[in-house]
Specification:
The protein has helices at residues 2-18, 122-128; strands at 22-37, 43-44, 46-58, 64-81, 84-103, 106-120, 134-148, 151-162, 174-188. By secondary structure, the chain is mainly beta. A hairpin with a 2-residue loop joins strand 7 (134-148) and strand 8.
Length: 189
């Protein structure tokens, strides 16, 4: 799985360097995440941070581009316990590869992602047991690309849907969910 992650990142960088019209997009924002935990039902959303770098590669087809990204994202959930609410946090390095269609200032995007868990604390291990290092899913959303100076201000919103069970423990089913909101600036290379 680690080799697949590295290969996808290298392929994205190679494709970007060969393209004619490429935009570099540094961005930052928040992630309103939760985890669907089968049989539990008391999960609530928690707010974390996210940020990273996207490379928007125009395909030559009007309005269509491919946008691989490398993002740090804080995921997790808030659980009700006997002592109150407990916030659980898992940090990921994510590589989404999005198909993007732009029409004027507005765009929509969707595509798969692979995430590498960077770490978790003792309370997360206690709550979840062992979890998988990799998360797979899809992201879909849209936004605005507003011309400003030599580039564009990017306002982006997405829904992230984890497709695989990240729990290692038999009989436990945990899937990541989240709404990501970010702002960035697209710089044409």
């Amino acid at each position: 799985m680690k080799k697949l992650f590295v290969a996808a990142a290298l392929l994205s960088v190679f494709a970007a360097t060969k393209a004619q019209n490429v935009e570099l997009i540094p961005k930052a924002g928040i992630n309103i995440s939760t985890q669907s935990i089968k049989g539990l039902g008391n999960e609530k959303a928690r707010v974390g941070i996210q940020g990273g770098l996207g490379v928007n590669v125009h395909t030559g087809l009007t309005g269509f581009s491919i946008q691989p990204e490398l993002n740090f994202i804080s995921k997790g959930t808030s659980l009700k316990t006997t002592t109150g609410r407990e916030k659980l946090n898992q940090n990921y390095l994510e590589l989404p590869v999005l198909a993007k269609y732009s029409y004027g200032l507005v765009y929509v995007n969707a595509g798969p992602y692979i995430g590498l868990r960077l770490g978790e604390g003792d309370k997360e291990k206690l709550a979840y047991g062992d979890t998988k290092r990799f998360d797979l899913g899809v992201q879909m959303g849209g936004g605005l690309a507003i011309p400003a100076g030599p580039g564009k201000v990017i306002l982006d919103a997405r829904y992230s849907l984890g497709l695989n069970n990240i729990a290692e423990t038999s009989g436990v089913n945990i899937k990541n969910r989240g709404i990501m909101v970010s702002a960035g600036y697209a710089i044409t290379l």
